[in-house]
Amino acid sequence: MSDTIAAVATAPGAGAIGILRLSGPESVSILEGVFRPLSGPPMSRRPDRQLVYGELLDGEGAVIDRCLATVTRGPGSYTGEDTAELQCHGSPTVLAMGLEALFARGARQAGPGEFTKRAFLNGRMDLTQAEAVVDLIDAQTREAARQAAGQLAGALSGRIGGIYDSLTDLMAHFHAVLDYPDEDIEPLEAEQIEAALRAAVGELKALRDTYRRGRQLTEGVPCAIVGRPNAGKSTLFNALVGYDRAIVTSVPGTTRDTVEERVRLGGVLLRLIDTAGLRETEDTVERIGVERSRAAMERAELILVLWDGSSPVTEEDGQLLARAVELAPTVLVHTKADLPSAPVPFLSLDPMPPVVELSARTGQGLAELEAAVAALFPPERARAAGELLTNARQAQAVERAAQALERAEEALAGGMTPDAVLTEAELAMSALGELTGRTLREDITARIFERFCVGK
């Protein structure tokens, strides 16, 4: 990291403001070469984080823009290095010319996530905090933003660190007894080791169980819309998406495949899946679509079962609803509420899902559907923001740590020597170290930061 990197740090396209960002040992000198304050001393003599008004110059000294500049010296900057920013007008042409001027002075183009990667490598944040940066950028709901902000502030790091430190204490005591036999250090009793392992396993399992909710916040809740052909599935799908994403006709069996879109409904991010109508069919293509619909229903974490409110309810409708309730949280939606309604049979399911009468064509009942979904996925106020696992890498590391400590418990119960038991504890610590970046291979680090955008 001996070179200086530069990038446009704002989103592509025209805007009111565009930011050019520098990080590295030559940041301040490169900035001085392209920026001329309209008054006062040069940037190298300015205090950190002071906004200075001046002119951005190209390689020939011609003015590109009038803008603001600031410097922040390491180690107190975002990356831990000397950094600088130019806050320009948001013309893509202006930003491109400014970036060329920075390159001409010795900076190079930053790679995806390289600013945050440098922050991680310089100890400004651990790996869970670095991953929270991209989660915060991608957040599509208030709860997802709160979760990412809490993780960025160190909530998840603190929870992992507590488990790691307890195992460190256990290992340190054990090795002290071995390494300093003349110091009269009390050896660990089996009961002490068992209690420490049991507590750590409990913490890890509780942490592991947060992954489902964390994944729902970052990726969305898989939500299958199911029902008989012409029950109004694609019409509802389009109404929720906000445009005609799925084909809608009066011909039964129009939808032959699953169609997916992300939407926010009742403050919940959904991965909405429009499915083929469920019925027995001799059509080969439609039959494949029906099979995919059933598969989507099996893996869904929310199911909207649609009954055509203008047609008599069939035995198959009841069977579909009962199966949905077994699989996942379910909302029963009586569609076509703007048409004359058919009699609805008495339902005695336990638990009974919420029921919404809805017309996707007129919008009647959409607010009630939002309220029903929100009630099924309330914000988790009891847990501190930022303490959820939000990606598979984190969940797998926690699972490996828990399994290693469970093996340690079994070894202890089986009468094996403490060193054999604590070997498993070391494996658990290594897995936890991968979470925060204490022990991590270079290829894994590179893969993580590939998710980031250039300039962050």
Structural write-up:
The protein is of the alpha/beta class. It has 3 domains: 5-121, Gyrase A, domain 2; 133-210 and 388-440, Up-down Bundle (Four Helix Bundle (Hemerythrin (Met), subunit A)), CATH 1.20.120; 216-376, P-loop containing nucleotide triphosphate hydrolases (Rossmann fold, 3-Layer(aba) Sandwich). It is built from 15 helices and 13 strands. It has a 7-stranded mixed sheet with strand order 3-4-5-6-2-1-7. A 6-stranded mixed sheet has the order 9-10-8-11-12-13, with helices on both faces. It starts with a strand and ends in a 7-residue tail after the last helix. The relative contact order is 0.12.
Structural class: alpha/beta
Shape: flat
CATH superfamily of the largest domain: P-loop containing nucleotide triphosphate hydrolases
The neighbouring-strand order within the major sheet is 3-4-5-6-2-1-7
Which CATH architecture of the largest domain?
A: 3-Layer(aba) Sandwich
CATH class of the largest domain: Alpha Beta
Q: Roughly how much helix do the residues carry, as a percent range?
A: 40-55%
Mean pLDDT: 85
The biggest sheet, with number of strands, parallel, antiparallel or mixed sense and barrel status, is: 7 strands, mixed
Helix segment count?
Answer: 15
Assembly category: single chain
Q: What is the CATH fold-level name of the largest domain?
A: Rossmann fold
Q: Supply Rg.
A: 29 Å
Estimated share of beta-strand residues: 15-25%
